[in-house]
Write a structure and sequence with these properties.
heterodimer, A: Peroxisomal Thiolase, Chain A, domain 1, two-stranded antiparallel sheet, 11 strands, B: mainly beta, five-stranded mixed barrel, three-stranded antiparallel sheet, 8 strands, 0% helix, globular
Chain lengths: 396, 116
């Protein structure tokens, strides 16, 4: 197996992008990644495109074929990868395997989603199609609803508090306000979303016990990474290569009700363990992480299940500032899904882009984790039933 | 004893694990032979939420949805029929019924409704 490196990254501002089609966004981010990798006027061996819902939302399929044509990458191989909200990381995983096996040398991975051109209930319904079609979906359950159930169980079992959830929300909104690619750039205060008498208006209940500011926004956006065999990276660019040191992927039951303990999120633990084992590293070696905080509760539970904190300690750690810049393990210095936004097909790719920025030491003070050498990402598909994680390290 | 004939679970003949919905192989031992098991008795509430941002197909202000465990250990999701979360708590017993849970193209879709 060959070492695989990320040699180029591209991302466009997430948010509401009425002027751009899905293909526009994928093309813009891909061109940035190609240019960043020194491949601006060259081809690639393969293209993987992560997208969850163009068939439903845009009535368009075969996105990878369309992007290969648009970017003049013909006759490269091209595949669209759909794995729900973990499509992005799944697409990167496929690119990594293709290069590690020796089959291809250069692979472009782009992820994108255009969710804001439909009304809110359609977007909610679209994401809910990943629930079980007979025993979950008919009841009107949504992903926020599942997160609400998880949060309630965590409150009962581990004493998780609303203040701990708010700590995640405040941190990620603050970091998002510093990220030029972030959907939500607004700073919030605990007073505004919790303490003040108007907080019930600013921050209404969304999926009890979770409020509006526990949720990520519905976003348009795209991101891309250029992968290359590490041994050939210097042929293209002088960028510090970021090595994909390991990845892990694990699945769990489709329905929440069939899990012995829904708070366990077994697939999160397994995916992280695989990634660390492959990398020969441990959670304690990680300098910075991007976790899948579609809901604040997820950042807390994931931070425990991947091994950064003991079970039941993640909320307290967030409240103590241990996941903030300068803390024990800075999490979501991009603002996370909570603030950067969550165009579902793009998210897993955007997480890797943000870690590459960190490991290149390319971010401004206020977001850059000093001397970061090892990064970690976790992309959460379904409601914890298909997880993909990466350990990335700066090549010295 | 309540019987929810529409909620049919599957108990693995080899290891006894209960599955709802059905699987082609047991989630524990990969056995392929199952006994049918109809959900019976009251339903104990395991967890729940009240959601306000609803997907397509609901003309109501909110939904209360929970996961319950029947007396014979079958677990299922259902809608809780209540005006608010007041008085709703994990561990309480709910009475199950098979009733419309949503409309699709003017047709009622039936499912598990739980009454405090």
């Amino acid at each position: 197996m060959r070492d695989v490196a990320v040699i180029g990254v591209g991302i466009i501002p997430f948010g509401r992008r009425d002027e751009d089609s899905l293909l526009d966004m994928l093309a813009y981010s891909s061109l940035k990644a190609l240019d960043d990798a020194g491949l601006g006027e060259k081809g690639v061996d393969a293209l993987y495109v992560a997208n969850m819902g163009a068939g439903i939302l845009q009535h368009q399929t075969a996105i990878a074929s369309a992007l290969a044509d648009r970017l003049s990458l013909l006759p490269c191989s091209a595949d669209t990868v759909e794995n729900g909200p973990a499509s992005g990381a799944s697409a990167i995983k496929n690119g990594v395997l293709a290069i590690a096996s020796g089959y291809y040398d250069t692979v472009l991975v782009a992820g994108g989603e255009k969710m804001r051109e439909v009304v809110g209930w359609k977007a909610t319904d679209f994401v809910a199609t990943l629930t079980h079609p007979q025993v979950e979906y008919p009841y009107g359950i949504t992903l926020p609803g599942m997160a609400g159930m998880l949060a309630r169980l965590y409150m009962e079992k581990y004493g998780l508090t609303e203040e701990q959830l708010i700590a995640v929300s405040l941190k990620n909104q603050r970091m998002g306000s510093l990220n030029p690619y972030s959907h939500v750039e607004m700073m919030i205060t605990k007073e505004g979303i919790h303490d003040h008498r108007d907080a019930i208006v600013n921050n209404p209940m969304a999926a009890d016990p979770l409020h509006l500011y526990d949720m990520c926004p519905v976003s348009d956006g795209a991101a891309a990474v250029m992968l290359c065999a590490l041994e050939k990276a210097s042929q293209f660019t002088s960028n510090v290569p970021v090595v994909v040191a390991g990845f892990g992927q694990a699945t769990d039951t489709h329905t929440l009700q069939e899990r012995d303990d829904p708070t366990e999120l077994k697939a999160v633990t397994l995916a992280a363990q695989q990634a660390f084992a492959r990398a020969g590293l441990t959670p304690q070696d990680v300098d910075v992480a991007e976790l899948h905080d579609a809901f604040t509760i997820l950042e807390i539970v994931e931070s425990e299940r991947v091994g950064f904190f003991k079970t039941g300690e993640g909320g307290k750690a967030a409240e103590r500032g241990e996941t903030a810049l300068g803390g024990k393990i800075p999490i979501n210095m991009s603002g996370g899904l909570k603030a950067r936004g969550h165009p579902v097909g793009a998210t897993g790719v955007a997480q890797v882009v943000d870690i590459v920025f960190q490991l290149r030491h390319a971010l401004p003070e206020g977001r850059q984790v000093k001397n970061a050498k090892v990064g970690f990402t976790l992309n959460f598909g379904g409601f914890g039933n298909n997880i993909v994680s990466f350990v990335l390290r700066r090549a010295e | 004893m309540n019987r929810m004939d529409q909620i049919v679970a599957y108990r693995c003949k080899k290891c006894g694990r209960i599955h709802y919905p059905c699987h082609d192989r047991c989630l524990d031992c990969k056995g392929r032979d199952f006994d049918r098991l109809v959900a019976e008795g009251d339903a104990k509430l395991l967890t729940y939420t009240q959601i306000f941002n609803l997907p397509w197909g609901f003309e109501v202000r909110f939904l209360i949805i929970g996961i319950v465990e029947f007396e014979n250990k079958v677990k299922a999701m259902g809608q809780i029929h209540a005006a608010s979360l007041e008085g709703i708590h994990a561990g309480m017993l709910l009475k199950p019924a098979w009733q419309p849970v949503r409309q699709v193209a003017g047709e009622a879709v039936y499912g598990l409704v739980l009454y405090p």
